[in-house]
Structures are given as structure tokens and as C-alpha cells.
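Student: Please help interpret what follows.
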Amino acid sequence: MSKRMKICINTGGGDAPGLNAVIEAVTMAAHNRQWEVYGIKCGYAGLLNTDEIINLTPEKVDGIASIGGTILGTTNKGNPFMMPVANAAGETELRDLSDRVMENFRRLRFDALVAVGGDGSLEIAHRFAEKGMPVIGVPKTIDNDMGGTVITFGFDTAVSVATEAIDRLHSTAKSHDRVMVVEVMGRNAGFIALNSGISGNADVILIPEIPFDIDKVCDKLMENELHGHRYAIVVVAEGALPRGGDVIAKGSGEAGRQHVVLGGIAEYVAREITQRTGKDSRSMVLGHLQRGGSPSPFDRLLSLRFGAAAVRAIEKGQFNHMVALKSPDIAMVPLGEALGMQKRVLIDGDTVLTARDLGICFGD
């Protein structure tokens, strides 16, 4: 394609370090082709209320690659196919407003959308692609559970934050002979817990892919006692579950939300350890600390590569695809194919085997 393009970009789902770097790369790569670039605020809200659209220029994105969050804002409750709307009775109901989004996209004469998000946001993008919108997906999630790519941006930063927290907890746990149970994000994938747990020298790692037996966790802690190791670090993914039990959730969240709100597993594990062993156990939830702050150098570079690759894909007319890391190169993967192969920790993979060789317990 050689014509002058008018493109837009949005960021959806949970925030992740590196979103601003993608925005900077898309803006700069487009302007260097003399294209126009517009930012859609808060997911698809800007295509429902067109006052929420801003013109992106090199001056507006200068230096934002190192800043956390997203200058466009994001939401995990803004699915235009299931949008919460108040009816005449004042009650909230879900309506399909996707046709209005399509009408505004065409009325504004956009040639393509760069949709940055995880599986929920990119599923929405894929549905718009099926309605005729030219879409390029950019995979974003700290959970690293998006299929089709070796890694998603945001993951490396989240693991770094979690590992630093675990490192700090060693000294206080040792001082008091305590068991510290650290809950990390990851939804139904254990990548953050596994990588930070190994890097942070945890004694136990509990992940969704390996349902745990709390008695075996306690056996590991008591065995440590016999060897003079009177404190312990347990890293647990928010989606981990006891064998034969269910995940612990805070609730389904507000209407239109993409996912159930997980949380509380660390408190459960700490309470069970105290009751079964008598050891002083405390729980800590890292929560949104893993999402905040500046992206790591790896995430900055990956995000910039993804953003620039998205513009090249638009130039080639390669729509309804997602940019992906296929080490060492960036490749294009059909969006539907990527969405159909959600990633989870391989329980017989090298990383889990490494943890077992180090003596780390998975509660199985």
C-alpha cells in the first residue's frame, strides 16, 4: 500500500507496562510514512463517543516508552458487543452496540485499527474484523497466556516486580521464623508465579496447572524444619486451586466485565498452614503493583518492536492478524488462530523440571 493512511489505536483490558511504548512506536512509524494517527480512548469508548478520540503526533508521544500505564486509558468492562446500558426503568442491561462502532469507524474514514490487548480485548477485535473492520492485533498481558507468541509484553516487568518482592520477604520471614505466602497475578496461568518463585528462591510454588494438596505443602515445610530451615516462602498464583476444590474469587465483578475477579488464595493457604503446622504464617497480595511502574528494558524493546511491526502489517494489508514474537523475529499470526490456543504452563516443561530439581514443592 502506498496511499496515505488514516489509522487509529486503542488499548483494552488490564493495563500493562509497555502500552505507551506500543503507542509511541505506532505513532512514529505511521508519521514517518506521512500517515495520520488517532488514539481511541478507554478501549472502544472513543468509537461510541467520538469526543474520546485524540490526534497522536510525535510531540505527544515523545519519550512515553519509559512510562507505565497508557495515555489512552483502558478498561476491561467496555465490550461493545455486551455494553452495560441503563434502560428506561433505570436498570442495567447488556446491549450490542457494535454496529454503532462500525458506523463511526467508517464515518471517520479510518483505514485500520491497531488493537492492543489480551485474549478478551483481541477477541473483541477479531469480532470487529469479521464485521469488516481492518484490524491488527498486538498481544498484551502480564499473565503471558496469549497463544501464538513466545511472550507478551508486560510479563517480564511483572516477574521482575514479583521477584524483588519475594527477595525482600526472605529477610523478614527469616527474622521471625515465619511462612510468608505471596499471591501473584496470572489468572488461570501460572507463569508469573513459576518464574518469580524460582528466581526468588521459593520453597513452594502453587500454580493453576498443578492442583495442590495442602498436606503435601505442609509436609515440605516441616521437612525444612528438620534441616534447620525454620522459615519459608510460598508463592501462589491467584488462580491456583486445591486438589478437588475450586479457585477462590472475590466475585464476578461489574456488568460487562471480561473476567471473574480472582483473589484470596494466599490467605487461605496461610491459614491452613498455621492450623496444620502451628507455624506463624502471613499472607501478602502483590496485586496491581505488578502492573504499575516503568516497563523493563526487555518489555520496552518488545513493545516498540510490536508497534512498528503493526504499522508494517497495515502497509502490507495483512489484516485480521496479530503481531507475535517467534524468536528471534517478529511474525504475523492469524488472529483467530492465536485466540484458539491459550497458553498455560507445561507441567513437564523445562522450567517446572528445573524447579523440581531445585527441590521446590508444587504440592502434588
